Structure formats: structure tokens, C-alpha cells
């Protein structure tokens, strides 16, 4: 059994993923590993790998091939292997994820480090071709995030992928350090937070507009003077609250601070309720800096300033 850090065990316990009976944990984790790899085999199937290898060889052998000629060959190759529309839908999902993941924890070099995990490329995307030109096609940790999110999107077609989901996945992956367990813990988090990513639920209490309205209401109630001051500047709660809430603060702090926040968020169980309370505490903490700032400075403080988690917690 993999050696998990104390924090990884605590997080998996908070998410009700790890069985409380320690005698059952090893067999459970092995079973989950097998289940996850069955998803890889199901959704990243032989046809996709065959298409990728054919297109990769064509691109390598014929660098002078025009884009339109390559597209014609690509269509023929896909049609010979599988349903064309299904392939295009899969590729669109993959590309959407592939474009977003590099922005996730972009300051953390570990995300670009190579990994020994079993990994095969399965879509011939622009991002892949750029890496290929840079002689950097070996799998890195970002590739594992992409694969987890792709499999989640295939299993959850009502959501697929929305921007910000990679920000929820990355802290889990870096703490748990196991792809299968990270995937299943991510599904646990998304079970509670997914409504914020479904546009048809925007105006429900758990949809993103409902959450932002709750945040605005709480802000107006707890800090009416600061709310009015920022409102008169033209800075409305959704302008900064959206990113704070949708990513559960994972873009606002350094990695060790994100872990501190998530320790409390996962323990709280009602994650969005905790994040909204934490967001109000941030505003209280920043109030002395904000109350005399102009629009540009105030917005910069809200979105880009360094913040002390321990001091913010004193305002909760």
C-alpha cells in the first residue's frame, strides 16, 4: 500500500472516501485502483491511440503537409477507426481541459515535472504539437490532471468540463499523490460543488449566481460601510467573488496556505458555506487597505495582494 501523508489520510477521511475500518482500507484502495484503470481502458481506448499514432507519424514524415491536406487525412483516418462525431466530441472535451490545466497553479514548478505514471497521448492537439517542437513530450504531472478531468467529463456528460475545475483537482493531486484516489476524491468534492458549474442551475441556492447572491448578502450585512464604499467605486462582489468561490480560494494563495484553508474547508463539510465565510473574513482583513483606495488599487488589493491566512482566520 502506498504511504500516504497524514494530511492525505485526513482529507480522504473528511471526504468519506477512506473506510473507517482500517482492516478494510487496503482491499478498498486496490479495488478503487482497478476501477479507475478500467475507466482508462474504457474511455482512452485502442481506437483513440491508433488514430493518434497514425497522425503523429504522418506529421513527423511530412512536415511540408498543408493544414487542409492534414485535415483531409485526419478525417479519413478517424472514419476508418471509429465514429467521426464521437471522436470530435472527445477531442473538444480534451482540448478544453488541455488549455485550462497549464494555468492551474502556474507558479508551482512541480506541475511541469515529469512523472513515471503510465500515460499515453491520445489526441493530436495543437498543445501536443507545441510540446513536440520543444522536444518535451514525456508525461508531466499536468498530463495526469488532464487525464483525470477527461475521465470525469466522460462519466459526467451533464458537466463535462468547466473552467475552474482543474483548480479544485490540483491540491488534491499534490496531497494524495495517487491518480486513482485523487480521481475518486475529486468526484466526492464535485458531488457537493457541481451545481456551481451547471449553467441551468445558476439561480438556485447552490448555483454560482445563488452563491454570489449569498456572498453579497452576507457582505452587505457584516460590513455595510465597506460594501457601500466598494460599490460606489464600481467594484461589485461578483467581480472578485466569482473566482474566490468557484476555485475554493486555490488561485488566491501560496500552496501551503491553500492546504491550510482546505484543511478547514473539508472538515467543515459544507464547503461553499465555509468559503463564503472565509471570503467575508478576507474583506474584513483587507478593510484598512481598501477603505481609502481608488478603483484600480482596491481591485488590485482584492485580486493580487498577498494575504495572511492565519490573520484572516482571526476575522471568522
Automatic annotation (TrEMBL):
Question: Which residues does the UniProt record annotate as the domain Rab-GAP TBC?
Answer: 1-269
- Pfam families xrefs: RabGAP-TBC
GO MF terms listed in the record are: GTPase activator activity
Entries under PANTHER family matching the protein = GH16847P, TBC1 DOMAIN FAMILY MEMBER GTPASE-ACTIVATING PROTEIN
Protein name per UniProt:
Rab-GAP TBC domain-containing protein
Q: Which taxonomic lineage does the organism of this UniProt entry have? A: Eukaryota, Sar, Alveolata, Ciliophora, Intramacronucleata
Amino acid at each position: 500500500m502506498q504511504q500516504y501523508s497524514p494530511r492525505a489520510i485526513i482529507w480522504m477521511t473528511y471526504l468519506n472516501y477512506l473506510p473507517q475500518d482500517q482492516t478494510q482500507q487496503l482491499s478498498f484502495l486496490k479495488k478503487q485502483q482497478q476501477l479507475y484503470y478500467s475507466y482508462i481502458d474504457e474511455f482512452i481506448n485502442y481506437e483513440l491511440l491508433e488514430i493518434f499514432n497514425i497522425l503523429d507519424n504522418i506529421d513527423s514524415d511530412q512536415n511540408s503537409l498543408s493544414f487542409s491536406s492534414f485535415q483531409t487525412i485526419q478525417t479519413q483516418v478517424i472514419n476508418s477507426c471509429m465514429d467521426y462525431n464521437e471522436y470530435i466530441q472527445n477531442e473538444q472535451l480534451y482540448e478544453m481541459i488541455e488549455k485550462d490545466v497549464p494555468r492551474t497553479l502556474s507558479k508551482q514548478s512541480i506541475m511541469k515535472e515529469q512523472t513515471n505514471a503510465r500515460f499515453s497521448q491520445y489526441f493530436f492537439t495543437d498543445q501536443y504539437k507545441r510540446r513536440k517542437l520543444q522536444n518535451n513530450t514525456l508525461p508531466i504531472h499536468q498530463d495526469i490532471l488532464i487525464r483525470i478531468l477527461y475521465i470525469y467529463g466522460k462519466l459526467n456528460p451533464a458537466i463535462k468540463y468547466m473552467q475552474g475545475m482543474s483548480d479544485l483537482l490540483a491540491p488534491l493531486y499534490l496531497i494524495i499523490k495517487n491518480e486513482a484516489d485523487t480521481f475518486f476524491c475529486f468526484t466526492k468534492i464535485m458531488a457537493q460543488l457541481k451545481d456551481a458549474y451547471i449553467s441551468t442551475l445558476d439561480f438556485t441556492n447552490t448555483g454560482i449566481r445563488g452563491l454570489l447572491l449569498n456572498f453579497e448578502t452576507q457582505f452587505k450585512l457584516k460590513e455595510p460601510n465597506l460594501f457601500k464604499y466598494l460599490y460606489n467605486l464600481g467594484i461589485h462582489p461578483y467581480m472578485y467573488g466569482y473566482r474566490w468561490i468557484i476555485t475554493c480560494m486555490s488561485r488566491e494563495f501560496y500552496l501551503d496556505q491553500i492546504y491550510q484553508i482546505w484543511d478547514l474547508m473539508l472538515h467543515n463539510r459544507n464547503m461553499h458555506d465555509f468559503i463564503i465565510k472565509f471570503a467575508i473574513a478576507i474583506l474584513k482583513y483587507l478593510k484598512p487597505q481598501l477603505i481609502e483606495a481608488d478603483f484600480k488599487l482596491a481591485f488590485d488589493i482584492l485580486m493580487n495582494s498577498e494575504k495572511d491566512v492565519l490573520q484572516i482566520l482571526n476575522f471568522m
